[in-house]
Amino acid sequence: MQTKPRPGSESIRRMMDGEERGANGLTPTPEARTASYILGILLLISLPALADEPIPPGPFTETECISCHTERDPDLIRQWREDPHSTASGVGCSSCHGERHEGSAQKSREDSTCTGCHQGPTSHSYATSKHGIITRLEEGRQDWRQPLQRGNYRTPGCSYCHLHDGDHSNTMAPDRGPEVRQWICAGCHSPRYVRELFANGRRQLEIADLKLTEGESLIASAVVDQTETLSKLLQSLNHHRHNVLLGIGHQSPDYQWWHGQPALDGDLIRIRDRILQSRRRKSLADNPEE
Ligand code: HEC
Ligand code: HEC
Ligand code: HEC
Ligand code: HEC
Ligand code: HEC
Prior knowledge:
The structure is a single chain. The protein is mainly alpha-helical. The chain folds into 2 domains: 58-189, no CATH class; 193-283. The chain is built from 16 helices and no strands. It has helices spanning 9-21, 30-52, 62-72, 74-82, 84-87, 93-97, 104-109, 111-115, 121-127, 130-137, 158-162, 177-185, 191-221, 227-249, 253-258, 261-286. The radius of gyration is 25 Å and the shape is elongated. It binds heme C (5 copies). One heme C (HEC) is lined by residues 65-66, 69, 76-77, 80, 85, 91-93, 95-97, 105, 108-109, 147-148, 159, 163, 166, 168.
């Protein structure tokens, strides 16, 4: 599959490049250090100018947010437009940030902003992962004032993974590739561990897809009188396949196993059972004397 280049990769790629220049990926080289001194001095000189610029408080309409921020940062608006939030679903700026500037960044980082819309299996699969469990246990200590930067949090919340560093196109979409996705996890885990997890996830999803295809072809080839029941079972197959995806994406063993693979196996058993039942009934009707 060809991967579509995403504008949002830029800021993350810059950070990854910067890191690679260091000898072990952690310590900056002398040149990088000199560069950052110079940058620091430049920043100090320019600070008063930045501080002078007033941030208007709001409230604003969606059109106002978009037009003012398009002038300031067209890339950010482009990312948002390509993200599923604006194109598919029309989720605007204020859905995540509120209508005023005060606290707008913090609001967008908090899990409750996302879970208000993404209820059901999406939130539940996160809640049943180690990340979700620790986040809940340490709720009082979670400091949402921190920017969503590498390793800034003990456990990742929704935005940490999906809008990492304020990148407005989904940073966990498969087409962002291993460079972006695995790099984000590797802020807290070893790269090898993460690589193996993703490889294992791919295999699990392939198995789930085989089960889905098997169910679909069983249903397609069956000449039966139970179309309604079978179409419900088909929905159930798709639902459980999505659970597997959420289970591996959110690292929830419950969703990979309990709500995922065995649930798919159960669907297949029920489909075969229904088809056999209908065949038996049909053959009885065709040969009543038997
Ligand atoms: C008239 C211009 C203008 C309008 C309208 C506007 N903003 Fe801003 N916004 C700014 C400026 C200036 C900043 C300062 C940071 C920067 O340079 O981007 C800012 C910063 C932000 C930040 C970052 C805050 C932080 O603490 O880092 C967010 C989030 C934001 N705006 C969201 C919105 C939303 C949502 C709307 C609509 C409800 C909106 N803005 C409307 C000018 C505007
Ligand atoms: C799905 C939720 C969501 C939507 C929709 C959304 N944002 Fe954001 N936005 C975030 C998150 C999360 C951050 C990162 C906050 C952080 O840690 O700095 C962010 C960061 C920002 C920042 C600060 C960027 C930076 O690099 O410091 C600005 C400015 C901003 N958003 C403006 C907007 C505007 C304008 C819109 C509408 C076109 C919008 N956002 C739509 C979630 C969202
Ligand atoms: C106002 C409601 C709303 C809010 C708030 C919201 N979303 Fe969404 N989101 C949607 C809708 C609607 C879609 C598109 C339909 C779908 O896939 O569920 C979507 C799509 C997504 C997708 C892509 C799903 C796919 O199929 O590829 C991700 C990932 C996502 N949202 C994460 C988040 C995160 C993280 C936050 C919090 C920062 C958030 N959303 C906030 C409504 C919302
Ligand atoms: C901000 C830090 C952070 C990020 C980013 C992060 N994790 Fe974690 N993760 C943790 C912590 C902390 C734990 C709990 C470790 C423990 O068991 O004590 C954990 C636990 C896990 C576990 C459970 C391990 C077990 O022993 O049960 C898996 C699997 C996992 N993470 C995978 C991932 C993947 C995949 C990503 C990226 C998509 C990721 N993590 C991103 C901090 C992080
Ligand atoms: C550790 C990183 C991480 C965290 C934390 C996280 N997600 Fe995800 N999320 C993923 C990955 C990876 C996927 C799988 C993407 C794929 O392969 O399609 C995913 C999938 C999704 C999807 C479904 C995409 C689809 O194709 O249907 C949605 C919606 C979503 N996440 C929203 C959320 C919400 C809401 C939260 C917080 C309650 C959250 N995520 C927390 C990494 C994360």
